[in-house]
Specification:
Helices cover 21% and strands 31% of the residues. By secondary structure, it is of the alpha+beta class.
């Protein structure tokens, strides 16, 4: 089957053959598994220990009552919980898993740990199962599962547990976890709020936001993030004690919880603006507690985080004020109402849906970029230099404020400002912003791809300046924004550029620094033995995608949430000249050696990866970066990353990190294939 996708760098539609059958156990999903949360879950020692202890207690309780233990493991994955149940003494274990390649791994893990005679693996969703699929054709009396996400119920836990009770479990069964509780806490955070709404006060020019945007609820989902990495109290202050919001009784055989919870009243511990709620959950593991509490974090994990609910508008509160919080949910999502008014016991809350369009056009990180005063000041300073003496300027970036900055900068020579938008969503928010700032006559919006533009689209006047941030909503990795270069080249080929056309940015470079991570590398580290069980079958599968450094694409991560430390100086891997067209069918190369700092490197914290980002030259003495806020002053220093961007992380393979001689130098090779826009990276030992 062929699937059409838009190339994020070139901007053109491409057709790719999708020839993998994910319904087959022999499908090679090693790259996907390497990037999945499986490894992180298996490195979650607290989670593993609590599940093991809970299973041992549950099996023991069942046996002490004179009954054999029959365990149902829903979503077995690697089979870890199933082999835990078998070792605890379960007579039979039914383990179900829908992803066929994981079924193969689970069967290997079960066999290599000697429990094939106890455990039956069913390659189905639990909601597709009947009693006839169960081991021995009988209902189970113990259920263990972890079909949870940061929001607790986002993976369908309520539907899954309710179906299991009705069709697969005995009525007096034991369920692990037996229940889970959502906690909420009032918070003040200008830092997080700047990722929620466009703030006129953050702009270096007089910016007016449409009135319809002010009360928009925002995105429909909670914001998952590492709340423990937000600086307290500089970036976030809690302004109440936490409170239990709603408890889900997973052990209840008649599980059918109401879709609303009685409001709870939180008393403000100090005055100020309440921007929203911090949200997390705890689970009852047969008497022990598994907690995501960000203020009592006992185990780093990336598969279960905390969440933030941001209000439509901040609420001004005084110390001692009562604030009412209500919660509604469906089978997969939670949403909240926060007010100083008393709410009735059964409060129906309208589900938050963006009504202004800006939260559809702009991601949270994009809103953060647009609210970055220093960044806007940098662009304004560069624009005044680049546009001096120019009559026509074209802006190429998605949903950018550059057209407004240009119009309000009052450049005397400018006659025409055009902004090219690639989507109807960004076109809409741009037009609304222009209207609210009375600039519809000053800026023309074109909703068209650059490679489809004709001279007539730009009014026949030669374009004397092309400017961009650059930013495009289709970009995942930093260098995908090289799309600006391809767009400039398309306009050059269309014959619409003046001979002396100025470009902002004029140049770009891929920057890199070698790092060690505090925790992030555990996502890719070998699992080995977990709670006494051999999981090398999982390591072997994942290792297929990481055994070679060649062709492994880096991953985007918001590194402000993931502490890491410098292990080298900053290096420039390759650079690009936007004032010249993209060379046709050419490979642009860069290569060299990164010298690693080993003096500040502890034995348990070697160089584990390379972080990459883009730096743009906007004008002769003006640059902007998508990476570090400031350069490290000494080796081994914790790095300070721009929270508005995701950086690219190339994880070094375990063989390279741990092999033989100390790793003192990294060779690198970079290739930009101009025909496809793909950037290929290689790292290895010198």
């Amino acid at each position: 089957m062929f699937r059409g996708t838009v190339n994020p760098t070139t901007g053109r539609l491409e057709w790719a053959l999708q020839d993998r059958d994910v319904s087959s156990e022999d499908s090679d999903l090693s790259p996907e598994l390497a990037r999945s949360q499986y490894g992180d879950m298996l490195h979650d020692h607290q989670r593993n220990r609590l599940y093991r202890l809970a299973l041992e207690r549950a099996v023991g309780r069942m046996q002490s009552s004179g009954r054999e233990a029959h365990v149902l493991d829903i979503g077995t994955g690697t089979g870890l919980l199933a082999v835990m149940a078998a070792r605890a003494g379960a007579s039979r274990v039914t383990a179900c898993e829908v992803l066929r390649p994981m079924v193969k791994i689970a069967r290997q893990v079960i066999a290599e740990n000697g429990y094939s005679d106890v455990i039956t693996v069913v390659p189905k969703r639990s909601t597709e199962m009947e009693v006839g699929h169960m081991a021995g054709g009988q209902r189970a009396n113990i259920l263990v599962s972890e079909v949870f996400d940061t929001e607790l119920i986002g993976e369908g836990a309520l539907v899954t547990f309710a179906h299991a009770h009705k069709h697969l479990l005995e009525r007096d069964c034991i369920v692990i976890p037996s229940s889970a509780t959502i906690f909420v806490q009032l918070m003040h955070s200008e830092f997080l709020w700047c990722s929620h709404k466009l703030e006129p006060k953050k702009s270096p020019v007089d910016l007016r936001v449409p009135s319809s945007w002010q009360k928009c609820p925002g995105p429909p989902s909670l914001w998952d993030l590492h709340v423990e990495e937000v600086k307290v109290p500089e970036q976030l202050k809690t302004i109440s004690q936490p409170a239990e919001m709603v408890t889900f009784p997973f052990h209840d055989p008649d599980l059918s919880p109401d879709h609303s919870a009685p409001p709870v009243v939180l008393q403000a511990s100090e005055g100020g603006l309440c921007h929203g709620l911090v949200v997390w959950w705890t689970a009852d593991m047969e008497g022990s507690e598994l907690s995501m509490d960000p203020w009592n974090y006992q185990q780093w994990r990336d598969h279960w985080l905390q969440a933030v609910h941001l209000l439509p508008e901040p609420i001004a509160i005084r110390k001692g004020d009562d604030v009412s919080v209500a919660c509604n949910h469906d089978d997969y999502s939670l949403w909240f109402s926060v007010t100083k008014e008393k709410q009735p016991p059964s409060t129906a809350i309208e589900r938050p849906i963006c009504t202004c369009g800006s939260h559809i056009a702009w991601s949270r990180s994009r809103v953060s970029m647009l609210n970055d005063t220093q960044r806007s000041d940098t662009y304004l300073r560069a624009l005044t230099k680049v546009l001096s003496g120019k009559a026509t300027v074209v802006c190429i970036s998605d949903g950018s404020l550059l057209p407004l900055l240009i119009a309000k900068a009052s450049v005397p020579s400018l006659k025409e400002i055009v902004t090219i938008e690639s989507s109807s969503h960004t076109s809409r928010v741009t037009r609304e912003l222009l209207e609210s700032n009375h600039l519809t006559e000053s800026v023309r919006v074109l909703e068209k791809a650059c490679h489809d533009l004709a001279p007539g689209d730009l009014g026949g006047r030669p374009v004397e300046a092309l400017v961009g941030e650059p930013y495009f909503s289709s970009s995942l990795l930093p260098w995908h924004n090289l799309h600006f270069w391809y767009a400039c080249t398309a306009l050059r080929h269309a014959g619409v550029l003046a001979p002396d056309c100025a470009f902002m940015p004029a140049r770009a470079a891929v920057k890199a620094i070698a790092v060690s991570f505090e925790n992030l590398y555990t996502l890719r580290a070998p699992v080995g033995v977990v709670e006494g069980f051999d999981l090398s079958a999982f390591d072997r599968t994942v290792g297929k995608s990481s055994s070679s450094e060649e062709g492994v694409e880096p991953e985007p991560h918001p590194l402000w949430e993931y502490p890491c430390y410098s292990r080298s100086q900053i290096c420039e891997l390759v650079n690009f000249d936007f004032t010249s067209p993209v060379p046709e069918n050419t490979i642009l190369r860069g290569s060299g050696v990164i010298s690693l700092d080993t003096a500040s490197c502890h034995n348990d914290c070697p160089c584990q990866g390379v972080v990459l980002w883009m730096e743009y030259k906007l004008a002769d003495d003006v640059t902007t970066s998508t990476g570090l806020i400031k350069e490290p002053s000494a080796p081994g220093q914790r790095l300070d990353w721009d929270p508005s961007f995701k950086q690219a992380v190339h994880f070094l393979s375990p063989d390279l990190v741990r092999g033989g001689e100390p790793l003192e130098k990294l060779r690198y090779s970079v290739e930009l294939h101009t025909a496809s826009g793909s950037l290929k990276l290689e790292f290895g030992r010198v």
